[in-house]
Specification:
Layout lengths: L4 E2 L6 H16 L24 E9 L2 E9 L7 E7 L6 H8 L1 H8 L2 E5 L14 H5 L4 H15 L2 E11 L1 H12 L5 E5 L14 E7 L10 E2 L6 E3 L2 H12 L5 E5 L2 E7 L5 E7 L13 H7 L10 H10 L7
Parallel strand pairs: 4-5, 4-6, 6-7, 7-8, 8-13
Antiparallel strand pairs: 1-10, 2-3, 3-5, 9-10, 11-12, 12-13
Helix pairs in contact: 1-8
Length: 324
């Protein structure tokens, strides 16, 4: 897969992160939701239980304390499925938790959700993106994989059901994890692209959601209008490259306007799926419309054509890592 490039964003994430936190507090009344809980099913022997509800966690990576948030629903299945939700540029784990509906999905389907925090509200996702993490060579691959290990020490995880999704810079980080690790069963990037080299990736299921009117990360490739000026390949080319990696059959295309879906089945229960939403911008479909937060993040009003959270979860549910 060819390397691509991006011009780094100006360093203004700390102020933006504070603005997001204030906006979320005003919009959602972000009180603590932690609840006391005993060890419960699936807790690793001798480990401190992860409480039911939301909890704040941390792990040291290369001498830097990295933070993340966990959401454990009541009645968590064992061994546990883990979904990692990666925020976009200028976002945070808390913002992602409040914005995209994964806690509600976890309550319904009984899986664990992790919301990591990128340093300076960005991820080092390859190709020079994004912000200070890219400029400083931050080890975000090490952070995410160490986070999974740390969670696994406290709660028995299903190694066949580890998933990662994300929006924008977070979606690009999901692709970077697919390129540089082999622990995930599937990834679900939204409004994202693949930047940097991806020379020998392990097979992985992929579902990619993108709007044709995305001016930050263009569906047909080329420089975007966002702060980071992301210059990526055409999204259909990115998805086609994963079909080759996974040795998939030719895709089957269905059209239910404004949504066009292309699904390719692959050996080992894998699949590669592209969902194109005509006229949608840089956004998470089905999310609440929050103009202030969207302005801070540089995203567009969310499409109502589908719920990205529900669609991505359904894809994850049907595509575990092959046994053996």
């Amino acid at each position: 897969m060819a390397a691509m490039r991006v011009t780094s964003a100006a360093a203004r994430a700390v102020c933006i992160g504070a603005a997001i936190a204030c906006a979320l507090a005003a919009a959602a009344g972000c009180g603590p939701r932690d609840q006391a809980a005993g060890p419960g099913a699936g807790t690793a022997p001798g480990a401190t239980a992860i409480p039911v509800g939301r909890s704040d966690q941390s792990v040291s990576v290369d001498g830097v304390l990295r933070t993340y948030h966990l959401y454990r629903p009541a009645g968590l299945a064992a061994p546990a499925t883990l979904v990692i939700m990666l925020h976009g540029g200028f976002g945070s784990g808390l913002q992602a938790e409040r914005s995209y509906g994964w806690d509600h999905q976890a309550d319904a389907a009984h899986f664990l959700v992790a919301y990591p925090d990128g340093l300076d509200h960005a991820w080092n996702s390859g190709g020079g993106c994004c912000g200070r993490p890219a400029a400083n060579g931050v080890n975000d691959i090490g952070f995410i994989t160490d986070m999974v290990t740390a969670i696994g020490h406290r709660l028995r995880l299903d190694p066949r059901r580890l998933y990662v999704t994300g929006i924008s810079n977070g979606g690009m980080m999901a692709y970077r994890l697919a390129c540089d690790t082999s622990i995930f069963a599937a990834i679900g990037p939204d409004s994202a692209t693949l930047l940097g080299a991806c020379d020998d990736p392990a097979p992985v299921s992929v579902i990619h959601i993108h709007g044709t009117a995305d001016h930050n990360i263009r569906y047909n490739g080329g420089p975007g209008d966002g702060v980071a000026r992301i210059d990526g390949p055409p999204v259909p080319s990115v998805v086609a490259s994963w079909r080759r990696v996974d040795q998939c059959a030719a895709p089957v295309v269905t059209v239910r306007r404004p949504v066009t879906t292309s699904v390719a089945t692959c050996p080992g229960q894998r699949a590669v799926e592209l969902i194109m939403i005509q006229g949608a911008g840089h956004q998470w479909p089905g999310a609440p419309d929050r103009p202030l937060i969207q302005r801070i993040l540089g995203t567009d009003p969310p499409s109502t054509a589908l719920s990205a959270t529900a669609v991505i979860w359904r894809f994850f549910l049907h595509h575990p890592k092959p046994a053996g």
